[in-house]
Amino acid sequence: xxxxxxxxxxxxxxxxxxxxxxxxxxxxxxxxxxxxxxxxxxxxxxxxxxxxxxxxxxxxxxxxxxxxxxxxxxxxxxxxxxxxxxxxxxxxxxxxxxxxxxxxxxxxxxxxxxxxxxxxxxxxxxxxxxxxxxxxxxxxxxxxxxxxxxxxxxxxxxxxxxxxxxxxxxxxxxxxxxxxxxxxxxxxxxxxxxxxxxxxxxxxxxxxxxxxxxxxxxxxxxxxxxxxxxxxxxxxxxxxxxxxxxxxxxxxxxxxxxxxxxxxxxxxxxxxxxxxxxxxxxxxxxxxxxxxxxxxxxxxxxxxxxxxxxxxxxxxxxxxxxxxxxxxxxxxxxxxxxxxxxxxxxxxxxxxxxxxxxxxxxxxxxxxxxxxxxxxxxxxxxxxxxxxxxxxxxxxxxxxxxxxxxxxxxxxxxxxxxxxxxxxxxxxxxxxxxxxxxxxxxxxxxxxxxxxxxxxxxxxxxxxxxxxxxxxxxxxxxxxxxxxxxxxxxxxxxxxxxxxxxxxxxxxxxxxxxxxxxxxxxxxxxxxxxxxxxxxxxxxxxxxxxxxxxxxxxxxx
Length: 557
Prior knowledge:
Elements: E1 26-30, E2 34-35, E3 44-47, E4 51-52, E5 57-59, E6 61-64, E7 69-72, E8 78-80, E9 84-86, E10 94-97, E11 103-105, E12 115-124, E13 129-132, E14 136-137, H1 141-144, E15 150-151, E16 155-156, E17 158-162, E18 167-170, E19 184-187, E20 197-207, E21 212-215, E22 225-229, E23 236-237, H2 245-248, E24 257-260, E25 272-276, E26 279-281, E27 296-297, E28 302-306, E29 313-316, E30 338-346, E31 351-358, E32 371-372, E33 380-385, E34 388-395, E35 404-411, E36 415-424, E37 436-439, E38 444-447, E39 453-457, E40 460-462, E41 466-469, E42 480-481, E43 484-485, E44 487-491, E45 494-498, E46 504-511, E47 516-520, E48 527-530, E49 538-545, E50 550-556
Parallel strand pairs: 1-3, 3-6, 4-7, 5-8, 6-9, 7-10, 8-11, 10-12, 31-34
Antiparallel strand pairs: 1-2, 12-20, 13-19, 14-20, 15-16, 17-18, 17-19, 21-29, 22-28, 23-27, 24-25, 25-26, 30-31, 30-36, 32-34, 33-34, 33-35, 35-40, 35-41, 36-39, 37-38, 37-41, 42-43, 44-45, 45-48, 46-47, 46-49, 49-50
C-alpha cells in the first residue's frame, strides 16, 4: 500500500503504517496526442481536451481544465485516491458521469467544482413516484425535477418521510436541496408519458465524498422507519463482512431494507419491496419489481430502514463504495439459500408476496434474516413468529420436514383469493419436497408444487387459518357432539347430514378450492338433506350445531 504520492499534487496521506512510494506526475489527455501517459493510480488525471471514451480510469486525482467537456460513458468508471477539481471559470466546463458510470474516491478529501451524475428511473408512468437520494451536494429539489407537480401549499409532490407519523410529509422543493444521505419521494414529471417509460434523472453539484453520519430516529417499535439513501456517485455494498453498509450499521438498524415500488397501475399493492441478505420480496408480480439488488444500493437510490432502540445515526463511508456498473433493476444471481416465495392474489389482480427461507444460522426465533411485514397493501401475506408478522422469515436450519409455518393473511374485500408459488431456490427448486398449503378451516392440504389453492374469504386479517407444512398429515376433528356422532352420507343424489340428538344450525358445502357451493341456514333440526347437483368432485361439508360446535367432513359427491 501507499503512504503518499508526492508528485503532481497527489501528496495526501492514504493510510498510516504504510511505505512511501514515489510515482509519476501526471496523465494528461489532449486533443493532439490523447493520453501522454496511461492513467494509473499514482498519476494525476488532467483533461485538457474534450473526452468521451469507454474506458475505466484510475488516478491519484482528477482535474478538468477550463472549457473542456468530459463524459464518462455508461459502463465505464473512474477510481481516484484523492480529489476532483472541475474548473468554475468557464461555464462550458463539465464532467458528466452517465447512467451506471460510477465515481469512486478512496480518501476522505474535499472536492471542488460541479459534476453531473445521470441516473435513470425504472419504467414508470406519469403519476408514479421514485425514492431518490442525491450523489452530489447542492442539488435543488425543484431543479432536479422541475416538471413535477408543485402548487403550494398542499399540492406539492415532493416528500420526506416522517418517522413520527409513519407518513410522507410535503417538502417545498424550490427552497430545499437534497441533504446528504437522505431519501426523497418525488413524483414523475407532469409531462411524463402515461405508459411505462424511463425518466432520465440528472444530479448536478459537488460530488459527495468521505465519511459522514446521517441522523435517524427511533421513537417506538412502531415509529422507527427512516428514509435514507446512497449519498455517493457510485454503488455501495450492503453485506461485505467488513465494510458493508449493513455490517457497519448493524448496531443501529434492523437487517431488512425497503425499496419504494408502488406504481399507479397497482395502487392496491404494497408500496415497497422488502430485502434482506439477498432475499427480495416483491411488491407486484411485474418483472421489474421481482429483480434482486444483489447486495448493492445503486447511485441515486433511496430506501427505508428501521432504527433500533436508542439509534441516532447511520454511517456512510468510502469503504462501502464499489465500482459495480450493473443496473440494480436488471441483475440476477443464483441464490445461496433455500427459499419459498409465496404469492397471494385475488380476482382483481391485487398482489402480495412473502418468503420463507432455510439458511445457515437461521432460527425459528427473531434473527437477522427476518424482515417485518410493513403490511401496507390492501391484501397481505406474511408468516408468524413470536407474535409478529414477517414478510421474510428465516426458519431453523437444517431443514426439518416437520416444520410448520403459520401464515397471516389480510384481505380487503370478500371474494376469491389464490395462493401460488412464485419461485423457489436451493433444495426446493427440483420440487421433490412437498410444499403444502394447509387450510385449517377445511382441514385441506394442497401441494403447491402441483397447483394453486383458491379459497374464499371475507374482509379482515386471519392468523389462524393457513399454514405451510411439509408432510401430508391431516387430523379431522372427531365428529361427535354431546355424545352423538355427526354423520354424513349419500342417499341417491342427496347428502344427508345427521347430528344424532344435537340440533344443526347451518351447513355449508365447499369445493377443495374453498369456493362456497351451497349454504343452508336456520335448520334447527338434527338432520338435513342437501343436493349440489351431479358434479363429480370431492367436497367439504361444514356443519355448525346450535351449541356452536363446528365439524368438517370430506365427502365425494
